[in-house]
């Protein structure tokens, strides 16, 4: 059934098209409202298009199902590797020279299709590969980066502990004790003994290597260790009954006298300051992931608003629904503008902790508003997986919290404004 709104503009009457048809044809349907993607090179644009097509084919149709079953999309690892999703920022593993803005759009696209899949990729390629890329020696990079880019080795990143999330820099309790042992051939070798526990560690139940952050009992500084799996004394137990990012398999980890050779200690990590370099890089990408969550919800709500009729009209014709759609697109557009600059600053080598902290706090707060409005547009159907918004609505909560909560990122910005750290 074709509906009109009774609008009688002469030009429109001449065109013979209804208000709804004109609305459908208008370019406001494109979420890249200010054509930000024009900044990508043609090679980057082609790659984003190929990734989007893969996601539409292989991820979108199954995302709700995996979410319900609380399973990671492990079967897609070869496809992701072929598309160059792993290690795209590193010269030794990238498929072509690319910008941080390109990688950011890729993060947005994956999250737009499925935030759990984006987190799975983010943990492996962002956190674990960056830990080795930033903190590893030439030999460690040589050993791990290629196999990780090809998806032959999957990584996890173990920082958070049951008692320490926001205060890991100060509070980290997991210990690393260095010792020298007889090598059985008349010489000696150095090794480390790790003890403690970790919580929320993504991919850890099936990862081939888990980067564990622990405090050196000799100098009290945080060091990083590549723990090869399986390892004696290491257990990872899947966290069940999550209600957000269910497609990410998170684990509680126990380290009970886990022995790691000195050659598997990340050679260039000397304190938590070095860990912060990794978090700065990934935090900016999580801001883009948040935009993808908002876009996914917005697109589903927009389609629904045009289909769903109440009072004899599509609900998209009601001013209050249009306000929610307009505010959602404004939030998305403002977040993209902010995050574009942060990504450009990364390429320019001038991105600081407070820049990515502001992007993460801002984009996740705007995302949370968008998923709320989009859920509301769907009425009762908004709480059911089948209608396309509920998953984004639930997933937004974890994205708001991990890689530094909204509060902590805001306080990092506050520290840069005032020179006073409110969180020590
Ligand atoms: C789905 C998911 C995946 C994750 N994946 C990983 C992973 O792969 N690896 C990993 O290491 N970690 C991971 N995390 C952990 C994540 O980084 C932490 O949850 C996050 O840092 C917050 O820590 P917390 O949950 O312990 O909360 P807490 O630190 O206990 O914070 C609780 C509340 O107190 C507030 N708060 C704390 N301190 C202050 C302060 N000084 N001022 C004001 N407010 C404050 C916080 O903002 C928050 O609202 C993951 C978490 C989730 C949910």
Short account of what is shown:
The protein is α+β, with helices and mostly antiparallel strands. The chain has 13 helices and 9 strands.
Give structural attributes.
424 residues, alpha+beta, seven-stranded mixed β-sheet, 9 strands, 50% helix, disordered N terminus, binds flavin-adenine dinucleotide, Acyl-CoA_Oxase/DH_mid-dom_sf
Description:
Keywords: FAD, Flavoprotein, Oxidoreductase. Belongs to the acyl-CoA dehydrogenase family. InterPro entries: ACX4-like (IPR045008), Acyl-CoA_DH_CS (IPR006089), Acyl-CoA_Oxase/DH_mid-dom (IPR006091), Acyl-CoA_Oxase/DH_mid-dom_sf (IPR046373), AcylCo_DH-like_C (IPR036250), AcylCo_DH/oxidase_C (IPR009075), AcylCoA_DH/ox_N (IPR013786), AcylCoA_DH/ox_N_sf (IPR037069). This is Acyl-CoA dehydrogenase family protein. 50% of the residues lie in helices and 15% in strands. By secondary structure, the chain is α+β, with helices and mostly antiparallel strands. Strands 1, 2, 3, 4, 5, 6 and 7 form a 7-stranded mixed beta sheet that branches. Strands 8-9 form a two-stranded antiparallel ribbon. The longest helix is centred in the last third of the chain and has 36 residues. The radius of gyration is 23 Å and the shape is elongated. 44% of the residues are buried. The N terminus is likely disordered. The site of flavin-adenine dinucleotide (FAD) has 23 residues, from strand 1, strand 3, helix 12 and helix 13.
Encode the helix/strand succession as letters: HHHHHHHEHEEEEEEHEEHHHH
Query: What structural category arises from helix and sheet content?
Result: alpha+beta
Helical run tally: 13
- Please state the average pLDDT score: 93
Indicate the overall shape: elongated
Which bin fits the share of residues in helices?
A: 40-55%
Query: Radius of gyration, Cα only, in angstroms?
Result: 23 Å
**Beta-strand percent range:** 5-15%
Distance between the termini: 62 Å
Query: What ions, cofactors and ligands are bound?
Result: flavin-adenine dinucleotide
In terms of per-residue confidence, which ranges show pLDDT below 50 for 5 or more consecutive residues?
Answer: 1-14, 22-29
Overall strand count = 9
For the sheet with most strands, the description reads:
7 strands, mixed
């Amino acid at each position: 059934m074709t509906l009109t709104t009774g609008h009688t503009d002469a030009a429109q009457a001449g065109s013979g098209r209804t208000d709804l048809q004109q609305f459908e044809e208008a370019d406001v349907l494109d979420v890249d409202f200010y054509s930000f993607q024009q900044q990508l090179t043609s090679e980057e644009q082609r790659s984003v298009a190929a990734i989007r097509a893969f996601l539409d084919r292989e991820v979108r149709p199954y995302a709700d199902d995996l979410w319900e079953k609380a399973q990671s999309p492990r079967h897609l690892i070869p496809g992701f590797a072929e598309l160059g999703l792993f290690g795209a920022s590193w010269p030794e593993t990238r498929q072509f020279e690319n910008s941080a803005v390109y990688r950011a759009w890729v993060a947005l696209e994956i999250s737009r299709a499925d935030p759990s899949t984006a987190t799975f990729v983010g943990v492996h390629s962002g956190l674990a590969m960056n830990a080795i890329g930033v903190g590893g020696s030439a030999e460690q990079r040589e050993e791990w980066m290629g196999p990780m880019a090809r998806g032959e080795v999957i990584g996890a990143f173990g920082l958070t502990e049951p008692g320490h999330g926001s205060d890991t820099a100060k509070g980290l309790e997991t210990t690393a004790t260095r010792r020298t042992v007889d090598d059985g051939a008349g010489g000696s070798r150095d090794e480390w003994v790790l003890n403690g526990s970790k919580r929320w560690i993504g991919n850890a139940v099936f990862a081939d290597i888990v980067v564990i952050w622990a405090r050196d009992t000799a100098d009290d500084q945080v060091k990083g260790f590549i723990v090869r799996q399986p390892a004696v004394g290491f257990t990872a137990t899947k966290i069940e009954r999550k209600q957000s990012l269910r497609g990410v398999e998170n684990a509680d980890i126990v380290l009970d006298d886990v022995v790691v050779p000195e050659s598997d200690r990340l050679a260039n990590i000397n304190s938590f300051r070095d860990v912060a370099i990794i978090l700065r890089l990934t935090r900016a990408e999580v801001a883009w992931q948040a935009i993808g969550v908002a876009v996914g919800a917005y697109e589903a709500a927009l389609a629904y608003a045009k289909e769903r009729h109440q009072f004899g009209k599509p609900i998209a014709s009601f001013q209050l629904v249009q306000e929610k759609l307009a505010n959602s697109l404004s939030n998305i557009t403002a977040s993209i503008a902010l995050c574009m600059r942060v990504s450009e600053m990364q390429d320019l080598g001038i991105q600081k902790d407070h820049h990515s902290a502001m992007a993460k706090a801002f984009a996740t707060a705007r995302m949370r508003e968008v998923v709320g409005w989009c859920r509301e547009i769907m009425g009762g159907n908004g709480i059911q997986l089948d209608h396309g918004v509920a998953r984004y609505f639930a997933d937004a909560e974890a994205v708001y919290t991990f890689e530094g909560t909204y509060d902590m990122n805001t306080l990092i910005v506050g520290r840069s404004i005032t020179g006073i750290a409110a969180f020590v």
